[in-house]
Amino acid sequence: MTETAGGFGYLAMNLHNQSGVLATVEGVLEFAVETLHYDHASVLLMHRRQPQAIAATDQLVSVADQLQIDLGEGPSLLAIAEHEDVLVKDTLTDDRWPKWAPTAAANGIRSALSIRLFTEHSTSGVLNLVSTQPYVFSEGDAELARLLSLHASIAVASARMEASLNQAVDSRKEVGQAVGRLMERYGLDAVQAFAVLRRYSQDSNQRLNVVARRVMDTGALPQ
Asked: What is the C-alpha to C-alpha distance for residues 58 and 62, in angstroms, rounded to an integer?
């Protein structure tokens, strides 16, 4: 137990040092397989209210995840919809997903555990643990996976916030540079140049940074 606790301490530090959402997720999957000794693992993340397959330890679970998205059913989607963890004891006998379960079994997946990733306000994704053998996951596995999902939820939320802040900073830089370009070319002051950018943004129904990028690429206002 002490060794496992130490492993989670190392995981927390490792995830804190990762750069970007993908690297963070890959760190979680590496820990799941190499330290907790699960056979296969993957993560789905929500993007604009839709689940997306982000990363997997191998092709077996990657295919199973994409099948859920394509078929619109499966343990990960149920975990998202019901806001609870989902255990699949044996895909050959589980009748909750008449399309996904037989296909997963045919591809070699016999049992699975889908653990919800969430923040205070919403579900951010799902951690999937998969085995080629039936009846693999015990309640102890579920508790350990929930602890892993807690670390993953915090790390992914932090990585996403950092990415959002970086994007906001980049957008402000682009807008500032475009304002400078318009001032230089058309003899405008900063307030006038920004007002022109904003008007073009509203008229074309495009984000301000998109219009700014076009100004920087062409040196002039969009047509």
From this structure: 6
Beta-bridged to residue 114, according to DSSP, are 86, 128
Closest Cα to residue 221, out of 186, 177, 172?
186
Task: For residues 181 and 186, give the distance between their C-alpha atoms in angstroms, rounded to a whole number.
Answer: 8
The H or E element spanning position 88 is: strand 86-88
Q: Token pair for residue 97?
A: 């997903």
Q: Which pLDDT does position 45 carry in this prediction? A: 93
Rounded to an integer, what is the distance from CA 117 to the centroid of its chain?
10
41-79, pLDDT tens digit by residue? Answer: 999 999 888 999 999 999 999 999 999 999 999 999 999
CATH of 2-164, one of 3.20.20.70, 3.30.450.40, 3.90.226.10, 2.60.120.560: 3.30.450.40
Q: How many CB atoms lie within 10 A of CB 47?
A: 12
**pTM of the predicted model as reported, rounded to 2 decimal places:** 0.71
